[in-house]
């Protein structure tokens, strides 16, 4: 019974950490909506800076404090170099292929949903749908300066902070209650942290993969490198798109292509071709790897309670329930929180 009480306490703590994460995101949106930037570049960089503060720094500080007893001895060893580091990093093609396969399925689902809701006739409803299913359009950098900043943000800030938060703190806190359970739950939380349907599915899958690699290597160093490598490809694409030439080519802003732009277009085409090759090879390697993977069962110190009951306890705790309400709000384009904020500010 003592271990069950300890588990319930962990559930409340992790639910509180995730609740703080979503509340911090709401505050971030409110602050950004209240500020007007005259310069497009300044506004874009400010968006990334505020996101780093509210979505990374504040939740990580809160998580480190709230789960300090569970992670005090584990945090110093998070970045130790594991003996199988090179082998773990060598799984990148399989990891990328699996992530993109999931992403393609998610995009197909989004397209089918979009076709089924073509009767959306209000701008507000259309905006809500776009915020949950068309999120990539909102982060396209307007120029090369913003593209460089976004690349740094995605490759370094996102990879380092998200791995520390999800695999370093949350995964380690759940590990005593079963490796398999810790992998699935931490992966799910990583998925809902992205706050939209377009990114949830592949983030969930990648969260499971990164958690598995973390437990296999005993360090988050490999998962951080893989995460950064995964994001770097998206970052390179964004760098290409941030140039006027590629924007004109992709979005038909101009039908003419200048001679000095052909080299950039050729490089972009070669990169896309190589990317498709990586995806196809990666999917094949992912299928091969999955068939050989070690299956985690309920293990470690906590065997007196089933997966079903553990999951039920986790999501029905007070903070777990609050976390899921805020997650639903985030997935719906923060409609609920926006209405609440409007009501509060209108009254004052």
Q: In summary, what is this structure?
A:
With about 350 residues, the protein is an all-alpha fold. It has one domain.
Uncertain parts: none
In what range is the share of β-strand residues?
under 5%
* Classification by helices and strands: mainly alpha
Summarize the biggest pleated sheet. none
Helices and strands, in order, run as: HHHHHHHHHHHHHHH
Shape: globular
Number of helices: 15
Instruction: Round the mean pLDDT to the nearest integer and report it.
Output: 85
Termini separation: 49 Å
- Give the tally of structural domains: 1
Into which percent range does the helicity of residues fall? over 70%
Number of strands: 0
Radius of gyration: 21 Å
How would you characterize the overall build of this protein?
- There is one protein chain.
- The protein has 348 residues and is an all-alpha fold.
- Helix content is 77%, strand content 0%.
- Helix 5 (92-116) runs antiparallel to helix 9.
- It has helices at residues 2-34, 40-66, 68-71, 85-89, 92-116, 123-133, 144-174, 179-193, 197-217, 221-241, 244-251, 262-290, 307-316, 318-331, 335-347.
- The protein has one domain.
- The protein contains 15 helices and no strands.
